[in-house]
Every structure is written in structure tokens, then in C-alpha cells.
Amino acid sequence: MRNLILASALSVLGACKSDHEVIRRQQSDVFYQEPTNEVDILWVIDNSQSMADEQYKVASEFDSFISSIEETGLEFHIGVMTTDMDNLDQRGQLVHGEGEPVYLAPDTPDYEALFAQRVQVGIDGSDREKGIDAAYQALSEPLVSSVNDGFLRSGATLSIIYVSDENDCTDHGALDGYHEQLACYDHSDELVPLRELIDDYRNLRRDREAQARMLVSAVVGPEIIDNCDGAVPGFRYDTMADAFGGLIGSICEEDFSGIMNNLGLEASGLMTSFQLTYPAVEDTLEVYVEDVAVDPGEVDGWTYAPEYYILYFHGSAVPPRGSEITVHYEIASAY
After folding, report:
1. Residue 46 needs a FRET pair 20 to 30 A away by CA distance; which of 54, 154, 163, 292 works?
2. Cα separation of 290 and 121, whole Å?
3. pLDDT in tens, 199-237
4. What does the alpha-carbon distance between residue 57 and residue 305 come to, in Å, rounded to a whole number?
5. How many CB atoms are closer than 10 A to CB 19?
6. Which tens digit of pLDDT belongs to each residue from 27-84?
7. C-alpha 42: how far from its chain's center?
8. What is the side-by-side order of every strand in the sheet holding 286-289?
9. Which has the higher per-residue pLDDT, 12 or 110?
10. Of all helices (H) and strands (E), which one includes residue 292?
11. Where exactly are the structural domains of the chain?
12. How far is residue 29's CA from residue 139's CA, in Å, rounded to a whole number?
């Protein structure tokens, strides 16, 4: 009798395993690598006292950034703003001179020189840099339909680029009662949680056409171990870039040409990251570009960020223009 009970138990366990295998959820996502006709690019520039050199580097390497965009014939809008949210007369507003257009476009006379002027926003801004909130306010009502009117288009790719040597200090007023210089760091627990800020940005995306892409990139301070004097790790900006599949560069680079070139390629429609529909079991991922399997790898392959279920392509594995990308995977059971 004991053997019969044991055999029955094993039979039940086997049935459970079989049922589990049957109900595994499989998913196939298909993406297309193709340039969009419109891209709206918002540069969010730190204008605190330590940023003069970095602003100059961005200005001087604009050619490296714009060349890929010009080659594709994209209809671009380029706006510049600061991280200063304390100045009530300027916060959330695009930088431009009197009588000048609010944003730069292909038909703006001498837009290269105008960009160089605008991106060098000065160093008189607040030392509580709130770049994440500044961009959100610039692209939300009432500013998006008033002082920034015309910059954001519903069907265009939106590319937000932070440039700062400090971490983000978006607090929604929580630190107003603190006057010490390092309040953003000493009371970092009172900053707006990143998950809330990510949701705010996702709501911006939902308000636009469903197919419009949104990218967030950051040129900020690297990790402390990288020995970057004068810059604080910008991990809050990095997290926003990770959440929206953008690029991350170090503001401590002596030469900005590489960073600017990569940002231009990304904005021009050559995507290096794709967000899956669902979180994936990583070891079940199968990636194909034009039906050719692509191996995982950090150099000339792909990597997967499970927290935001984003697939990143690297080096020669970046899908060429016009190609079809297919990703097969098992949906993570926690979803």
C-alpha cells in the first residue's frame, strides 16, 4: 500500500510539472529600425557655477551631434533649457533671445551658432539642480502650450538630454526649509522618488501618439570609483536614462566628440535599445535581426536590463536602418 501511495504522489507531482510547462507564457516582439521624420530634442543644461567648461564642450562639438541628424533629412526641433527651477521667471522655459525663435529647426538661419550661444547658459543658476523636473515642466501644461509652444509635436520622437556635474535634486519643495549647501545630499530621502518621476515621464509619452518614441539620455558624473574630480555621480539622471533606453556618458571626458556623435545617432533614429512588451526570463531570450540570430555580449552583441525589460545592442550588433528585429522569450512568472 505504501508503494502505491508513493507512486500516486509521484504521478501527481509529474502532472503538476507537466501543467506548469504547458501554461508557460511565450512572447514574440517585433521592432523596426527606421528613422522617424521628426525629432524634438530637449537639452537640459546645468547652469551652476562649476559648468562653464562643460557647456563650452557641448557647444564646440555640436557638429558631431547634428551631422547624423542632417544626413537623414529629419525635421528637427532643438530646445535648450536650464536645471534652475528656483528662478520663477525662467524655470521650465526654453532659452532664446529676444526676437529669436523659441526652438531651432532646419530652416532657422545659422542654427549652429544659435545653439552654441544658447547652450552656454551661464553659471548663475541655482546649486540645487532639478533637471528631471525642469524637463517635465517644460513639456507639460501650461508651459508646453504657452512660452514653449510649438516645440513638442505629438508624433515626433522626443529626446531629452541632461548635462550636469551634480545629481538631480527634484524635491517638489520638500527642501525649501533647509538652507545648508548640501541639502540635496544630506536630506536625499526627501527627494521625489525616482519611480514617481518615471511615471510622470511615461504619462507624457501616453499623451502623445502611441507610436512616438521617447528617449532620455544623461551626460553626468560617473561613479566615484572612476576618479572624476569636481563631479558628483548623477545616478538619478542615469536611472531615468536606463528607464527610457537612452545613452549615458561621462561629463568628465576631455573630448565630447564621441558622446555628441552617439547622441546624434540615437536621435536620428538609429535605435540601440528596445523595450520589450513584458519582462523576460533572460536565459530564454532569442534575438534575431532580419532572421539572423544575434548572440549576447557587451561588445558586439546584446545585453538585457531586467528591471526595465530593455534590450540593448552594442557595436556591430546594432541593427542597420530598415531592419526588422524579432525577440522571442518566456514572460517572467512575477509579471
Report:
1. 154
2. 45
3. 999 988 776 665 578 899 999 999 876 667 779 999 999
4. 31
5. 9
6. 999 998 865 688 999 999 999 999 999 999 999 999 999 998 888 788 999 999 999 9
7. 11
8. 26-33, 323-330, 286-289, 292-294
9. 110
10. strand 292-294
11. 38-267, 273-335
12. 30
Q: Does the N-terminal peptide bond of residue 142 adopt cis geometry, omega within 30 degrees of 0? A: yes
* DSSP state letter for 213: -
273-275 vs 248-250, strand pairing mode: unpaired
Burial code of 159-194, b = ≥16 C-beta within 10 A, e = fewer? bbbbbbbbbbbbbeeebeeeeeeebbeebeeebbeb
Contacts of 186 (CB under 8 A, 6+ apart): 178, 180
pTM over 0.90: no
* β-bridge pairing 323-330 and 286-289: antiparallel
Alpha helices in the chain (DSSP H): 2-22, 52-60, 62-72, 111-119, 131-138, 183-186, 194-206, 235-243, 257-267
| Closest by Cα among 28, 30, 27, 61 to 43 | 61
Residue 136 and residue 255: Cα distance in Å, rounded? 29
**Alpha-carbon span 245 to 28, nearest angstrom:** 19
Q: Which class would CATH give 38-267?
A: alpha beta
